[in-house]
Amino acid sequence: MDADAWDERYAATELVWSADPNQFLVAEVDGMAPGRALDLACGEGRNALWLAERGWTVTAVDFSAVAIAKASQLAEARHVEVEWMTADLLRWRPPEAAFDLVVLFYLQLAAPERGRVLGGAASAVADGGTLLYVAHDLENLTAGTGGPQDPTVLATAEDVAAVLVAAGLEIERAGQVRRVVGSGPDEGGREAIDTLVRAHR
Question: Which helix (H) or strand (E) holds 76?
Fold first, then answer.
């Protein structure tokens, strides 16, 4: 999907995603000393807002201007400050070694584009900083639920870790994580399978 398609999707409903932060962000980041954070492909800003409310100085980037506008309104309503940017991550490169935390959640791209974005994300991690990547895992296509049905935009933790190591980061954790999808009476607590990679410089 391109930016125009995502603009239409974000404009069609109040919130496409939950207002709550991603559960893996909370588990991995809660308790870290706040510093400078970069949220790439931030969507409507739920993770950026959660970080900002916990004292992080956050820059959040997405290529959907509608998503960024919604995120900015949410930030104002919640009385937090975030630097919001509308930019295509395939063309925009973050400042080098500028962030103590870089998060990249559910940006599903084919391998060449994914590698380009991961390289930029890795370059933005400051000395001692952390990069956290979460996305739908390749195995989710056959053993999980939801997410993209195109295998070319799905990866494994090993795929992602290899790119980050080549970009100069050290891997702290790389593997699959599972989360319950849906809570309605007919949804039955199905599980989605994600890739989670945590790396540091």
Answer: helix 65-78
Written in H, E and C, the secondary structure of 98-149 is CEEEEEEECCCCCHHHHHHHHHHHHHCEEEEEEEEEEEEECCHHHHCCCCCC
CA separation for the pair 64, 3 (Å, rounded): 5
Asked if residue 133 lies in contact with residue 197, where contact means CB atoms within 8 angstroms, the answer is: yes
Reported as a single tens digit per residue, the pLDDT across 88-147 is 999 999 999 999 999 999 999 999 999 999 999 999 999 999 999 999 999 999 999 999
Assigned token pair, 165:
């190591």
Pairwise CA distance, residues 69 & 43, whole Å: 10
159, part of any domain:
yes
Which of the 8 DSSP states describes residue 21? P
Q: How many domains does the chain have?
A: 1
What's the rounded Cα separation, in Å, for the pair 152 and 163? 16
CATH code where residue 149 lies: 3.40.50.150
- Residue 8's CB is within 10 A of a number of other CB atoms, namely 12
Two tokens, residue 110: 């084919």
Structural domain contains residue 14: no
pTM summary value: 0.90
